[in-house]
Design goal:
Keywords: Heme, Iron, Membrane, Metal-binding, Monooxygenase, Oxidoreductase, Transmembrane, Transmembrane helix
Family: Belongs to the cytochrome P450 family.
InterPro entries: Cyt_P450, Cyt_P450_CS, Cyt_P450_E_grp-I, Cyt_P450_sf
Strand content: 5-15%
Strand order of the largest sheet: 1-2-8-5-3
Cofactor: heme
Pathway: Hormone biosynthesis; Plant hormone biosynthesis
Radius of gyration: 24 Å
CATH architecture of the largest domain: Orthogonal Bundle
Distance between the termini: 65 Å
Structural class: alpha+beta
CATH superfamily of the largest domain: Cytochrome P450
Number of helices: 17
Oligomer: single chain
CATH topology of the largest domain: Cytochrome p450
Largest sheet: 5 strands, mixed
Helix content: 40-55%
Shape: globular
CATH class of the largest domain: Mainly Alpha
Length: 491
């Protein structure tokens, strides 16, 4: 029996070795006319995938990239998620990636299966069409209209989930807030069922984005697909009601929610997306927005707990803004524009713990970069955030120092929202949402981290392993901000 098992194991290893040898020889022969970047494709269909995922989930992804760059240089070949891939890193790579029309944004097979035909997974002319619609919906003039709605969601959330509590676990709590905000904007008045019932499903879907797209029971991908189906069904029901309502209105112009906005654009001939496509894009917008912003708010709270001087400056700024409006009035676009120091804190948080560590693209034709060839159809993965912690570009990169953003960062070295024409269309919305939420949290509370040694992992967004539990207490509000007599104790 033992002999049979040993013989089987030996045969399996021999077969694997032969397959890998044939795999490498195939690529070497097929691309013999190309000067491919250094590196290797590894085990067929697997390559470096598990190695990268382990690094992400153990919070060593930055070191993983640096080790690879040290070994092969800023341009290297590998295989990720079943596709031959070229890794690019550095400012020149960021410039090349975000300004090159021969590279189309693409995503993993898992993401395409999970969110369907959304902006997160479309390519080519369809991507340009949907991206244009999203940019129109999330442009500053439109976001101005959402500030009051965001303010209402934040105040309601804080009253329900923070006031009267002596402890809070930040990440899951802030996830509910972020989901409530983006759902109210994307889905409108009928978003209540999504906000209350599907927060866990959105988290499950998000965790499945970086997984192998093999639908085996109890795997991340399988759970993600089940969550996706549940979310899609709920949003489809809302979309059908919205479509029927708009059909009954002559010359409908109500575009206060994303689904109505897209349906109206379709009626005007601006696009030809089906209702199913619009639902997929509503899903993609929610998925893309709520995890990233909740991660940013969570880590801002973590940093401010250990930086009393920075918290003091933030508090003074926010108290002064509040002093110049009635307490009952919602924050406005102009108020958010005055939150300059707090936005620097947010930018420094995004530099040190970027919600997105890289992105995938696909070559539409053979291209050349720094003397190497990247064949048509290959994936290009840019580790865009590696520059964030490079001392060549940021002095003392491990130090949390918001004042470094009093001057502009070196070109293509600071990339939390991408860059150039491919900058994230939701960056203004994310800024408003974060500033409004932090305004009320900073003014009302002081907190202390329960577990100072708590680490975080990428799953795929940065995630504190315990969810960041904090001890919480109300802050005595200042009576005279101009005289600087407010209580700024950090508890």
């Amino acid at each position: 029996m033992a002999y049979s098992i040993l013989l089987g194991a030996v045969l399996a290893l021999l077969v694997a070795a032969v397959v890998q040898l044939l795999y490498k020889n195939f690529y070497r022969l097929y691309y013999s006319a190309y000067k491919l970047p250094p590196g290797n494709l590894g085990v067929p269909a697997i390559g470096s995938t598990f190695s990268l995922l382990r690094a992400c989930r153990s919070n060593t992804d930055d070191q993983w990239f640096r080790d690879r760059i040290k070994k092969y240089g800023p341009v290297s070949t590998m295989s990720l998620f079943g596709s031959p891939t070229v890794l690019l890193a550095g400012p020149a790579a960021n410039h090349f990636i975000f300004g090159n029309d021969r590279l189309i944004l693409t995503q993993t097979r898992a993401l395409r299966a999970l969110v369907g035909r959304s902006v997160l997974a479309l390519t080519g002319s369809e991507l340009k069409l949907v991206r244009s619609a999203l940019q129109g919906y999330l442009k500053p003039e439109m976001v101005r209209r959402y500030v009051c709605k965001i303010d209402h969601e934040v105040r309601s959330h804080i009253e329900l989930n923070w006031v009267g509590r002596d402890s809070v676990t930040v990440l899951p709590t802030v996830r509910r807030l972020s989901l409530a905000i983006i759902c109210s904007v994307v889905l409108g008045q009928e978003s209540a069922t999504i906000k209350k019932g599907l927060c866990t499903d959105f988290v499950t879907l998000g965790k499945a984005i970086l997984s192998f797209p093999v639908n085996i029971p109890f795997t991340r991908f399988n759970k993600g697909m089940a969550a996706s189906a549940k979310i899609r069904k709920a949003i489809t029901n809302i979309a059908h009601k919205r479509e029927e309502s708009l059909l009954q209105e002559a010359n409908a112009t109500s575009d206060n929610d994303f689904i109505s906005y897209m349906l109206i654009l379709r009626s005007q001939g601006a696009h030809s997306l089906t209702l199913e496509d619009i639902v997929d894009n509503a899903m993609g917008l929610i998925v893309g927005a709520h995890e990233t912003t909740s991660a940013l708010i969570t880590f801002m709270i973590r940093y401010l707990s250990s930086e009393p001087d920075i918290l003091d400056k933030v508090t003074r700024e926010q108290d002064e803004i509040a002093q110049n409006k009635n307490p009952e009035d919602a924050l406005t676009w102009d108020h958010v524009a005055k939150m300059k120091y707090m936005w620097k804190v947010a930018m420094e948080t995004l530099r040190t713990i970027p919600p997105v560590f890289g992105s995938f693209r696909t070559t539409t034709k053979d291209i050349e970069y720094q003397g190497y060839h990247i064949p048509k159809g290959w994936k290009v993965f840019t580790a865009q955030s590696v520059t964030h912690m490079d001392s060549q570009f940021f002095h003392e990169p491990n130090k949390f120092n918001p004042s470094r953003f009093e001057k502009s960062a070196p070109p293509y070295c600071y990339m939390p929202f991408g860059g150039g024409p491919r900058m994230c269309p939701g960056n203004v919305f994310a800024r408003v949402e974060t500033m409004v939420a932090m305004h009320y949290l900073v003014r009302q509370f002081r907190w202390k981290i329960t577990c100072e040694k708590e680490t975080y992992k990428r799953d795929p967004k940065p995630t504190p392993v315990l969810g960041l539990p904090i001890k919480l207490k109300l802050r005595p509000l200042a009576k005279n901000v101009q005289a600087n007599t407010m209580d700024t104790e950090t508890g």
